[in-house]
Amino acid sequence: MTFPGLNVDDDEPYNVCAISIKDFKIDCEQGKNSPLNRPEFVDIDVSGQG
Predict the structure, then answer these.
(1) Domain residue limits at 24
(2) What is the DSSP string of the chain?
(3) The total number of structural domains that make up the chain
(4) For 1-50, how does the pLDDT look when each residue is reduced to its tens digit (9 = 90+)?
(5) Can you give the pTM of this predicted structure?
(6) Would you say residue 20 lies in a domain?
(7) 42 in a domain, yes or no?
(8) Does a structural domain hold residue 25?
């Protein structure tokens, strides 16, 4: 997912959330913006196995 026009400073934390359509549980993970000029990746396990 990208958000054009949104700037996040280096090392600034951000949250990524997903919601289950089975039980409407919200699962969030926190990441920190890298100083590198590249996309950030956050993995959220939505299988219910982890």
Answers:
(1) 8-35
(2) ---TT----TT-EEEEEEE-TTT--EEEEEEE--SSSS--------SS--
(3) 1
(4) 667 787 778 888 888 888 888 888 888 888 888 888 777 777 777 776 65
(5) 0.56
(6) yes
(7) no
(8) yes
